[in-house]
């Protein structure tokens, strides 16, 4: 049984419709009545959920970041922690055209960092939990999970920002290099034969000086 309410379903339809209309006409050329027609609802229904086109565009950016969180969750469950970098790059490759339109055509620019703040805690929480698990199991070196999670989140931004800037990058090469960098940075130290493992040690050490 679905837990989605009729209002939430309509809102999701409007976001999907807005994405389609903006892809065709750009943000400036998109009209609320066109979005209503695309979604199969009245113009009043659009304004019930979104007070303006700016508010709808902000919701689209928020929807992109919600998709990123879901992508990271899947990547963390399917493979090594470094794969979140590759997964996020692939995700943003499909979003970059829309994101560029939203960031360049809005009269009041959307600040991605502001909207990302709504999802930042969830994203960092998933990364920290995975790092703790990998430290406990000896897959990564012991480190401050807060710092490591923030560093991973930062590396996840590299490819998207390059794409938004219009860089003619080789995305496969870039993500390969970033993933290799993460693997090297988090690699556990080599242990001498017979040296006891520290896999059972506290996986969340207190940072020095705290």
Description:
With 210 residues, the chain is mostly helical. Helix content is 69%, strand content 0%. Helix 1 packs across helix 2 (32-39). The longest helix is centred in the N-terminal third of the chain and has 26 residues, at 53-78. The model is unreliable at 191-203 and 206-210 (pLDDT under 50).
Annotation keywords:
210 residues, mainly alpha, 69% helix
Helix/strand layout:
Blueprint (H helix, E strand, L loop, with lengths): L5 H24 L2 H8 L3 H7 L3 H26 L4 H11 L2 H10 L6 H25 L8 H11 L2 H7 L6 H16 L24
Helix pairs in contact: 1-2, 1-4, 1-6, 2-3, 4-5, 4-7, 5-9, 5-10, 7-8
Cα gyration radius (Å):
21 Å
Can you tell me the residue ranges where pLDDT is under 50 for at least 5 consecutive residues?
A: 191-203, 206-210
Task: Give the strand tally.
Answer: 0
How far apart are the first and last residues' alpha carbons, in Å?
48 Å
Order of helices and strands: HHHHHHHHHH
Number of helices: 10
Average pLDDT: 82
Shape: elongated
Oligomer state of the chains in this structure: single chain
Structural class of the secondary elements? Answer: mainly alpha
Q: Could you give a short account of the major beta sheet?
A: none
Structure at a glance:
It is built from 10 helices and no strands. With 210 residues, it is mostly helical.
């Amino acid at each position: 049984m679905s837990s989605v309410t009729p209002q939430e379903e309509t809102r999701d339809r409007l976001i999907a419709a807005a994405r389609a209309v903006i892809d065709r006409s750009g943000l400036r050329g998109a009209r609320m009545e066109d979005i209503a027609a695309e979604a199969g609802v009245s113009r009043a229904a659009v304004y019930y959920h979104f007070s303006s086109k700016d508010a709808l565009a902000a919701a689209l950016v928020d929807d992109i970041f919600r998709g990123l969180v879901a992508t990271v969750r899947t990547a963390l469950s399917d493979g090594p922690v470094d794969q979140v970098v590759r997964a996020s790059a692939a995700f943003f490759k499909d979003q970059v055209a829309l994101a560029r339109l939203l960031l360049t055509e809005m009269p009041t620019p959307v600040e991605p960092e502001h909207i990302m703040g709504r999802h930042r805690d969830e994203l960092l929480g998933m990364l920290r939990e995975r790092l703790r698990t990998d430290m406990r199991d000896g897959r990564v070196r012991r480190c401050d999970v807060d710092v490591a999670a923030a560093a991973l989140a930062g590396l996840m931004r590299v490819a998207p920002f390059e794409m938004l800037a219009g860089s003619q990058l080789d995305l496969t090469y870039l993500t390969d290099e970033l993933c290799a960098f993460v693997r090297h940075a988090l690699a556990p130290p080599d242990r001498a034969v017979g040296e006891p493992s520290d896999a059972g040690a506290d996986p969340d050490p207190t940072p020095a000086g705290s």
